[in-house]
Amino acid sequence: MSEIHIVDASGLSCPQPVLLTRRALRESTDGAIAILVDNATSRDNVRRLAEREGCQVTVEELPEGGYRLVLSR
Amino acid sequence: MSRFNRLFISRWGPIIAGIAVGVLAPVLVHLGNPGNMGICVACFTRDMSGALGLHRAAVVQYMRPEIIGFVFGALIASLAYKEFQPRTGSAPLLRFFLGMFSIIGALVFLGCPWRAYLRLSGGDWNAIPGIVGLVIGVVIGVVFLKRGYSLGRTHPAPAAVGWIMPALMGLFLLLLLFAPQLGRTPEGDPTGPIFFSVTGPGSMAAPIAIALGVGLLIGFLAQRSRFCTVGAIRDVILMRDSHLLNGVVALVIAAALTNLALGLFRPGFADQPVAHTNALWNAGGMVLSGLAFTLAGGCPGRQVFMSGEGDADASIFVIGMLVGAGVAHTFNLASSPAGPAPYGPVAVVIGLAFCVIIGLTMREPVTA
């Protein structure tokens, strides 16, 4: 079972969430990546990047607010 | 998600917003706004600063309804789609000074990025060095971003924090409509604030209701589509992502066509409305602006829209612009059609030094 690499991008200004996601995608060779963001704009930007990089993306709305995007290749 | 909303989140979102700006800005000029200044976030913030008496440059004093509309339009959009989120805490004091320096740079060029693109679409070729400077400023900002620059995280805040900016804009609207004379001359007679220019760009304005309506519409579209004229350049450099740039291209094409249709396209360098021909400082001012906007996470329009979403960090940036405009005109930093002001260039250099120090020293630890 591959482990999930978690990136906490909540509260960060544009374009940090996307930059961190891109870095995480480059550094992880296997396994899924979970990105935490706190707003819809970051959610959409991360999703767009992930889809461009050929990842499968699932978006989960968190009960306490914010979103968790799980990216897998 | 509604069909409309899906459209705004898609690649068509920024394009729709860009077309709206590109068509409506020249229309506002046609209806009375200054030349090639249908919408300029920097110039309009400066005019509002003048209306409030934060500077006393008599030719640029007017409480611009467009900016008020931007905040309300973004507020309505964010409330409707549950994106209104009061938040603060990301180095607000630094954002205040980034806002100040961003407008100082813009007032050396005589426009923010929105106006740079609109001037280009009006045939004002002095915008070309301005846009070159803007790109250079964004490139420098991207270098810092890649090195790990960050102003830190913002955090959810109580509701009042998010409602201050809309409330302030509501107050500004009342001040515009009721035009009270709250100042007193040495003889005791009423005078501004609130000031209204009788000559110059501050005296040139489209009807209030139309300007407000256009601001509301663009505020709504820009909030939904995350339209950003600096992100447009930044994302291409950073990631070869043209999602936002498509919006700017749409803006330029739509504005050029509308200008042609309205007889407002006048190509050349000399005698352009509210513009000067000093290429070095047209570029230099925008290097500072481009860098400051990149460090703050968005163009001045985007900062205004985010302030309507409850983002108090963006609000502080906007207030920094308001104060910075006051500083620019009081300290002789702002250019005129005759060229840069005596202290504009040195202020740009000081601003660049500030931005470089911020860019090099502000970091957020990356959590794994």
Short description:
The complex is a heterodimer of chains A (73) and B (368). Chain A contains 2 helices and 4 strands.
- Remind me, CATH topology of chain A? Translation Initiation Factor IF3
Please state the structural category of chain B: mainly alpha
Order of helices and strands of chain B: HHHHEHHHEHEEHHHHHHH
Largest sheet of chain A: 4 strands, mixed
Strand portion of chain A: 25-35%
What is the first-to-last residue Cα distance of chain A?
Answer: 14 Å
Order of helices and strands of chain A: EHEHEE
Mean pLDDT of chain A equals 92
Residue fraction in strands of chain B: under 5%
The biggest sheet of chain B amounts to: 2 strands, antiparallel
What is the CATH superfamily classification of chain A?
A: TusA-like domain
Shape of chain B: globular
Number of domains of chain A: 1
- Greatest interface (CB-CB under 8 A), with counts per chain: A-B, 26 and 33 residues
Radius of gyration of chain A: 11 Å
CA-CA gap between termini of chain B: 32 Å
Tell me the domain tally of chain B.
Answer: 1
Unreliable runs of chain A: none
How many DSSP-defined strands of chain B?
4
Give helix % range of chain A. 25-40%
Overall morphology of chain A: globular
